[in-house]
Amino acid sequence: MKRQGCSWLAQHLRDWRSGCRGLLLLMAGLGVVGWTPALWAQGIERGHRVGITLLGHRLGVYWRACGTLREVGPPAGTDGLVLSHPDFCDRTPWWQVVWSNGQQGWCAERRMSRVQMLPLPGEGIYPNLSAAGAYPVQVAPDGNPLNVRSGPGLNYGIITQKPSGATGWAYQVVVDTTNRLVWWKIRWDDANGGHVGWSADSRQLSGVYLTRTGASRPIYSLTLESSASGVGISVSLRDLLGNPATGVASPPAVLSYVSGSQITLSVPDTAPDGGGFLWWERNGTPYTSSPTLTLVLTQSERLRAVYRTAEEQFLWSLVAPWRQGQYWTPSTYDGHGGGNLLNAVDFNRASSSRSTCPYTGGWLQDCNEVLLASHAGRAYTRAQSGCTGYGNYIVLVSPTRVSGSSNTYLATIYAHLNYFLVSNGTDVVAGQPIARLGSTGNSTGPHLHYEIREVTVSGSTLTLGTRRQVLNNPAVRLSGQELRVDLNCSVSGLGYAGPPILGTASVGTIPSNLTPPCTPYNCGNFLWSPETTPDRCIEGELPEVILLTDVDGNGCVDERDLLEVLLAIGGVGGAADVNLDGMVDEADLLEVLLNFGSGC
């Protein structure tokens, strides 16, 4: 009847115990240990490692639960392995345990209010211990703070101390046979991943220092990568090693976490090289376009922050070079763009937008309309000699380098201008007014000729290089809109036309017109026609090399350019910084002297 009673009680205690998860064991001082049902919830189970508390010193080893004493047991701090399921009697669970000193038998988990055994991290018993994953641990309730050391030994310095009840994850074990100590590397739970250091789990005659509070979990790796160099990935919850120590990882990086860890990752919208964030790639597959994500780790994962390159971001982020709310129709023609009609585009202002050819419901007079910078950069204002070809034009050089080059940059060109609104060498921002539209140079009527070019800066020269495809290129956007023409849509006088582009930049105060080198075009009638075509300059291409020593942009390196540099000595940037080193100094003056008379 007694055994039946114990079995009945055991079943009900098991049911009762399962509802008590999460409670904590409390103790005060060095005297009596306060007992709560939470001790059972800490999870002593068959196959688990246990340790003898200070209050369980020399606990009895019995032939069976509630049976006859077999022998006086091992001292406090000894660890053992549980061989059985619990047998409940005498108001406490009993466990069959083999102790690391060789003793074996049934031992009571507690005696009245005295806690005799606590679960320890690790698999096996001293000295053959292993770490199978990571173990949730807390500082044992003995009222004493636990030392956290920089290494697995008493000879290592103390990093900090953790009070009773402090929690963490123990995941690496080293056995010190000289001092009969078992050391665990622990990532503590405070301060976003907390301290990482080594602590002993118990000591002979001193009892248990660490107690396991739940089942071990596997450890998974989180590999962080970025397609752009120099990107820092913010990581909230440092890993088991305490990495990244600053909270920001420099990819490629491999972090280690306990299964079920919740990690928040964040990357900047713009990479150091100017590239724009696209999406996170998870295990090789696009995952989310948000730069911030929260991940619960249930397996090893590889996350890659994917960016457009700086070149791709430049082409993707161009601003439509006219005012907010205006529609301008793109067009091109055979022979345009240096022989490739998709390498240049002409724009005229449209009254409205249509979805089919001819893509607009009418035209508006656009002569002298304000034109805006499509991107940040330095504006070089020029006119071709004798007012030929492109007439008054601006080469706007961006700070975006062409991949693999140290001195070749992406630039936009604005041609056939009436007036400049910025001086030569002015640094501008995207959306800033820079010119007024006209029909100077080889032009049959007011329009904006627009190109994307590579330009190479060498010494005091700017060499115009490869044209980039600007039309029908899915990588190019103007204010987020694809710039394309329909080669099946022929519009009289324009060539091939495409869907109008809507301006998005809000323009504030318009600066005064600057008299350009090429005589401004007198707008005359509404739009060009064979009958109203003005006298035009002869056809011509842009010069291959632009002299930056022509500081005032009038086509001739002369005394006025020397004076411009002399007046700007000691300053930074601007047209007088002809060698683009960021300072106006004697080196710039020397460049002007060496090129004196050029172009005159």
- Using DSSP, what is the number of strands? 44
- End-to-end separation in angstroms reads 120 Å
How many separate helices?
5
Tell me, briefly, the overall form: elongated
Major beta sheet summary: 14 strands, antiparallel
Strand content: 35-45%
Rounded to an integer in angstroms, the radius of gyration calculated over CA atoms is 39 Å
Task: Please identify the structural class as seen in this structure.
Answer: mainly beta
> What is the average per-residue confidence, as pLDDT, rounded to a whole number?
88
- How many structural domains are formed by the residues? 4
Residue runs with pLDDT of under 50 for 5 or more positions: 1-41, 528-539
* Helix content bin: under 10%
Please characterize this protein's 3D structure:
This protein has 600 residues and is mainly β. The protein has four domains: 217 residues, no CATH class; 90 residues, Immunoglobulin-like; 217 residues, Glucose Permease (Domain IIA) (Distorted Sandwich); 53 residues, Type 1 dockerin domain, CATH 1.10.1330.10. Helix content is 8%, strand content 36%. It contains five helices and 44 strands. Strands 29, 30, 31, 32, 33, 34, 35, 36, 37, 38, 41, 42, 43 and 44 form a 14-stranded antiparallel sheet that branches. Strands 1, 4, 5, 6, 7 and 10 form a six-stranded antiparallel sheet that branches. A five-stranded antiparallel sheet has the order 16-15-14-11-19, with no helix packed on it. β15 and β16 form a beta hairpin. α4 packs antiparallel against α5. The N terminus is likely disordered.
